[in-house]
Amino acid sequence: MSGVTRRARAKLNLSLDVLGKRPDGFHELCMVMQSCSLADEVYVESAAPGDFLAQTNRSYIPTGDKNVAVKAARAYFAALGREGGAHMRITKRIPVCAGLGGGSSDAAAVLAALNELNGGALDEAALREAALAAGSDVPFCMLGGTALAEGRGEALTPLPGLPETDVVICMPYFNCSTPELFGRVDARKSRCRPDTAGLLAALEAGDVLGVARRMYNVFEDVLDRRAAKAVQEIKLLLLAGGALGAAMSGSGSAVFGLFPDAESARAAAENAKAVCREVFLAKTE
Ligand code: C5P
């Protein structure tokens, strides 16, 4: 039987605020999310009941239950209430453990593909529930575009889209542990918070500069010294290269900048290579 191919876009956090800890152990978040053109490709085909496998072009990514794509496929059949199986082949381009929602976006693509293969058997609400079972960012990755994400990240309000904007995405030479950063945010009051209301007003007005100037992520405030220095260095480099604004995405370590045009983005990306492990050019979409 033939399968289905889907594009799985990376997400950027135009803002990220942690409002507090919830009784379920997760955190109450308030984030403005934006999808972009940096994307994985996800091919899904049906397999024998109980047979789940996710193969990628990265040897260090697990292929079984530890892979969020497999988690999503299992959540799909659990929601459907019948046994099923899926084989997935994922061409990864989005860096892993970057705060760019690569795994979450693959999971969202798997859910959409399985629903297509099963004749749309799950409705939107059931798909959203299966998405949240796979991970907090999966519901946004299913929706895409520009959205306010609250609660665990699943309470979504679509927002007026950012006009197509050039983005430079930089991967520093360090990784962040998501649970560790959440733990540090708990331990101290954030000194600096994003101006979410101002950001929403700027989006409403289609004011890219107003959006870019308000981008902020509270995790930037709790990085260890070395990581904070690297993030600062990249942000300054992007801003010196003409970025309208720059911030870390999600729980890092990716740092991105919004640019007024493709030319300045390209030049800044070239310069950023000197201090980054990887650099990507993309557009908001
Ligand atoms: O839901 P997901 O598996 O993506 O979350 C990964 C980790 O991030 C969780 O185990 C938790 O430590 C943290 N998290 C959180 N609050 C959220 C989302 C994620 O504490 N709203």
UniProtKB/TrEMBL annotation:
<feature type="active site">
    <location>
        <position position="11"/>
    </location>
</feature>
<dbReference type="GO" id="GO:0005524">
    <property type="term" value="F:ATP binding"/>
</dbReference>
<keyword id="KW-0418">Kinase</keyword>
<keyword id="KW-0812">Transmembrane</keyword>
<comment type="function">
    <text>Catalyzes the phosphorylation of the position 2 hydroxy group of 4-diphosphocytidyl-2C-methyl-D-erythritol.</text>
</comment>
<dbReference type="GO" id="GO:0019288">
    <property type="term" value="P:isopentenyl diphosphate biosynthetic process, methylerythritol 4-phosphate pathway"/>
</dbReference>
<dbReference type="InterPro" id="IPR004424">
    <property type="entry name" value="IspE"/>
</dbReference>
<dbReference type="InterPro" id="IPR006204">
    <property type="entry name" value="GHMP_kinase_N_dom"/>
</dbReference>
<keyword id="KW-0067">ATP-binding</keyword>
<dbReference type="InterPro" id="IPR036554">
    <property type="entry name" value="GHMP_kinase_C_sf"/>
</dbReference>
<comment type="pathway">
    <text>Isoprenoid biosynthesis; isopentenyl diphosphate biosynthesis via DXP pathway; isopentenyl diphosphate from 1-deoxy-D-xylulose 5-phosphate: step 3/6.</text>
</comment>
<dbReference type="InterPro" id="IPR020568">
    <property type="entry name" value="Ribosomal_Su5_D2-typ_SF"/>
</dbReference>
<feature type="domain" description="GHMP kinase C-terminal">
    <location>
        <begin position="200"/>
        <end position="276"/>
    </location>
</feature>
<keyword id="KW-0414">Isoprene biosynthesis</keyword>
<keyword id="KW-1133">Transmembrane helix</keyword>
<dbReference type="Pfam" id="PF00288">
    <property type="entry name" value="GHMP_kinases_N"/>
</dbReference>
<keyword id="KW-0472">Membrane</keyword>
<feature type="active site">
    <location>
        <position position="137"/>
    </location>
</feature>
<feature type="transmembrane region" description="Helical">
    <location>
        <begin position="236"/>
        <end position="259"/>
    </location>
</feature>
<dbReference type="InterPro" id="IPR014721">
    <property type="entry name" value="Ribsml_uS5_D2-typ_fold_subgr"/>
</dbReference>
<keyword id="KW-0808">Transferase</keyword>
<dbReference type="Pfam" id="PF08544">
    <property type="entry name" value="GHMP_kinases_C"/>
</dbReference>
<keyword id="KW-0547">Nucleotide-binding</keyword>
<feature type="binding site">
    <location>
        <begin position="95"/>
        <end position="105"/>
    </location>
    <ligand>
        <name>ATP</name>
    </ligand>
</feature>
<feature type="domain" description="GHMP kinase N-terminal">
    <location>
        <begin position="67"/>
        <end position="145"/>
    </location>
</feature>
<comment type="similarity">
    <text>Belongs to the GHMP kinase family. IspE subfamily.</text>
</comment>
<dbReference type="GO" id="GO:0016114">
    <property type="term" value="P:terpenoid biosynthetic process"/>
</dbReference>
<dbReference type="GO" id="GO:0050515">
    <property type="term" value="F:4-(cytidine 5'-diphospho)-2-C-methyl-D-erythritol kinase activity"/>
</dbReference>
<protein>
    <recommendedName>
        <fullName>4-diphosphocytidyl-2-C-methyl-D-erythritol kinase</fullName>
        <ecNumber>2.7.1.148</ecNumber>
    </recommendedName>
</protein>
<dbReference type="InterPro" id="IPR013750">
    <property type="entry name" value="GHMP_kinase_C_dom"/>
</dbReference>
